[in-house]
């Protein structure tokens, strides 16, 4: 069973001492950034200025902003790929600047857009990189590699001994995620990991990633410039403008319902209501509309669908209402246009109940 | 076998005659060899009549020179590989050190081999010593250069992900960059070997080992009955050795290139 060999973050002590983790073990630790500033030598304007944020254990926080806004720089200061000019960063209460960068990075998963798999090594060897750095035994390492390949849905029998160039883009990205997860780090940093894949692959990877995160509950900072991706994946979204200024930091639903300012609104783009609907399950609407008159036939929808799916079906079929029927055929209720609208209005005045919703707006 | 060598020799004479007509193509060692051949060829081809007998009588001698030639090249290129790759690892990421090293190696390569041997023999005496030192020096440029190029060509994302996973700088250099640069470094070693096989012939000038001995004997006995035989057997031996070494490198490249890097 894999275990952290070096205790870096205090709460890992507890987990490490336990019987050991699996691909689905873990859970995250908190990350706090306190007045973090990065000024490159010879430049008047800071790349990142006075950035403060607290990320809760197990939270998936999305940094969204246009290219060059400093979101990637901010993220890369957490594992000290970029050294902050001032300010402090604590992971699980431990100041990252007090740790050796190499030791620190072995306990932080890191995924970049270009993946950066080592072309001369097999997929198995790529994934085994950090376990080997940590001195795991051969047996532990190979068991872990197999487990991870399963986790990211690459058949170990097929892919373990392949080389990166023999994999498609989507498969390479999965191998990259597996490699980052190898030593079961409590924290993951992901820099537009799905940015270079085609839309269909991206959507698939996102769905898989969400499922994976539901299991492993890492604390993740995920950088993207795609607001829709942020809405889809994030527990909370930080909308960043130049110099990595936080324009709004809140749950996707709260940001969509009440953008803090014009900048955030422009970033959301059109169709904010539709995007919000895509976050709401059909069961969140009032389903009490009457049963169909005898002989009337209505389109049916699964209760796991979102209100956006429901609206889509209503528009396409032109029906007045939808029957919500679960997989067993049990009728849960009926959904109308009016109920969808009502669900939307109901949810909008309340701001998201995220852990730090209050400190969302920074300027 | 003898017939094949004989045929090669005839071709070689024709080649050298045509090439000597083009002064641009004639450089360094080949110039010296060509002059012998042209001079001999001008005497007429009757000198070739005794070739078969010549080879037959001196086959032991030739074999020994061939082995020695190979040995002096192998030792020199091996030393140059160790030194060159080490230099490359030291300077690849230092702009000043890098250009100083590569420029120095390039300057060394411009020194005519006869001149370099003349300078080296007071220091290292006669025989193997000056030959090896000279060959090591000449072999450095392709090896250092290709090492530096290879290490620098590793894509930035690969380096970033390696560092991002907590590999040390040395770890990244030795476990990621060096293996990825290996095919390029090997090409450098291959070029160095070709270079060294040619230049090694000049080593005979300071009593060095190898086929150069026959070439110089041919040179010094111009006009005598066996002058052309000496020069030609030496030259053909050098060419054959170069071709064999090149073939060997194709095999080595095949065997040592990590499978993930093969095209």
Automatic annotation (TrEMBL), chain A:
It holds the Pfam family ABC_tran. This is ABC-type quaternary amine transporter. PROSITE patterns: ABC_TRANSPORTER_1 (PS00211), ABC_TRANSPORTER_2 (PS50893). One of its GO terms (molecular function) is ATP binding. It is an enzyme of class 7 (translocase). Keywords: ATP-binding, Nucleotide-binding, Transport. The lineage of its organism: Bacteria, Bacillati, Actinomycetota, Actinomycetes, Propionibacteriales. Residues 31-268 form the ABC transporter domain. It comes from Nocardioides szechwanensis. Belongs to the ABC transporter superfamily. Its EC number is 7.6.2.9. InterPro entries: AAA+_ATPase (IPR003593), ABC_transporter-like_ATP-bd (IPR003439), ABC_transporter-like_CS (IPR017871), P-loop_NTPase (IPR027417).
UniProtKB/TrEMBL annotation, chain B:
It is a multi-pass membrane protein. It is found in: Cell membrane; Membrane. It holds the Pfam family BPD_transp_1. Keywords: Membrane, Transmembrane, Transmembrane helix, Transport. The chain crosses the membrane at residues 70-92, 99-120, 126-144, 184-207, 227-253. One of its GO terms (biological process) is glycine betaine transport. GO terms for cellular component: plasma membrane. PROSITE patterns: ABC_TM1. Belongs to the binding-protein-dependent transport system permease family. This is Osmoprotectant transport system permease protein. It comes from Nocardioides szechwanensis. The lineage of its organism: Bacteria, Bacillati, Actinomycetota, Actinomycetes, Propionibacteriales.
């Amino acid at each position: 069973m894999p275990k952290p060999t070096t205790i870096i973050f205090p709460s890992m002590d507890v987990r490490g001492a336990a019987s050991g983790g699996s691909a689905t073990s873990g859970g995250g630790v908190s990350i706090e950034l306190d007045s973090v500033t990065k000024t490159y030598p010879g430049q008047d304007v800071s790349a990142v200025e006075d950035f403060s944020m607290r990320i809760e254990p197990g939270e998936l926080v999305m940094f969204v902003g246009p290219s060059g806004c400093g979101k990637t720089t901010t993220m890369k200061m957490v594992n000290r790929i970029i050294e902050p000019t001032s300010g402090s960063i604590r992971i699980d209460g431990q100041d990252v600047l007090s740790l050796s960068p190499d030791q620190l990075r072995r306990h932080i998963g890191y995924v970049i857009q270009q993946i950066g798999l080592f072309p001369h090594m097999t997929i198995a060897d790529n994934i085994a990189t950090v376990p080997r750095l940590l001195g795991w035994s051969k047996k532990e390492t190979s068991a872990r590699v197999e487990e991870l390949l399963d986790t990211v849905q690459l058949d170990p029998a097929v892919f373990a001994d392949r080389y990166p160039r023999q994999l498609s883009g989507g498969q390479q990205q999965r191998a990259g995620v597996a490699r980052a997860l190898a030593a079961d780090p409590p924290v993951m940093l992901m820099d537009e990991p799905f940015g270079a894949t085609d839309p269909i692959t991206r959507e698939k990877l996102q769905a898989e990633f969400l499922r994976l995160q539901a299991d492993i509950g890492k604390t993740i900072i995920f950088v993207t410039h795609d607001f829709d991706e942020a809405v889809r994946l994030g527990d909370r979204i930080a909308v960043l403008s130049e110099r990595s200024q936080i324009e709004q930091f809140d749950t996707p639903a709260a940001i969509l319902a009440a953008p803090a300012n014009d900048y955030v609104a422009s970033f959301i783009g059109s169709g904010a209501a539709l995007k919000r609907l895509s976050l709401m399950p059909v069961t969140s609407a009032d389903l009490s509309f009457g049963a169909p008159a005898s002989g009337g036939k209505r389109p049916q929808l699964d209760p796991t669908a979102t209100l956006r799916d429901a609206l889509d079906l209503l528009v396409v079929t032109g029906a007045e209402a939808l029957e919500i029927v679960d997989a067993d055929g049990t009728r849960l209720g009926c959904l109308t246009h009016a109920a969808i609208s009502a669900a939307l209005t109901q949810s909008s005045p309340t701001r998201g109940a995220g852990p730090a919703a209050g400190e969302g707006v920074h300027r | 076998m003898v017939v094949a060598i004989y045929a090669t020799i005839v071709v070689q004479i024709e080649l050298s005659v045509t090439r000597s007509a083009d002064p641009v193509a004639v450089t360094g060692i080949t110039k010296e060899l060509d002059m012998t051949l042209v001079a001999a060829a001008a005497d007429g081809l009757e000198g070739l009549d005794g070739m078969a007998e010549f080879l037959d009588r001196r086959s032991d001698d030739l074999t020994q020179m061939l082995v020695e030639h190979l040995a002096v090249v192998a030792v020199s290129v091996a030393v140059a590989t160790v030194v060159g790759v080490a230099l490359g690892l030291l300077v690849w990421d230092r702009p000043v050190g890098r250009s100083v090293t590569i420029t120095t190696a390039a300057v060394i390569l411009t020194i005519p081999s006869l001149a370099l041997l003349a300078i080296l023999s007071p220091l290292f005496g006669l025989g193997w010593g000056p030959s090896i030192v000279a060959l090591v020096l000449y072999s450095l440029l392709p090896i250092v250069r290709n090492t530096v190029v290879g290490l620098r060509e590793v894509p930035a994302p690969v380096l970033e992900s390696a560092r991002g996973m907590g590999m040390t700088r040395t770890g990244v250099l030795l476990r990621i960059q060096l293996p990825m640069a290996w095919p390029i470094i090997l090409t450098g070693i291959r070029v160095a070997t070709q270079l060294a096989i040619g230049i090694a012939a000049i080593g005979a000038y300071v009593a060095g080992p190898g086929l150069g001995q026959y070439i110089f004997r041919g040179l010094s006995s111009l006009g005598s009955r066996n002058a052309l035989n000496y020069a030609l057997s030496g030259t053909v031996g050098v060419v054959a050795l170069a071709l064999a070494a090149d073939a060997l490198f194709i095999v080595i490249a095949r065997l040592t290139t990590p499978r993930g890097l093969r095209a």
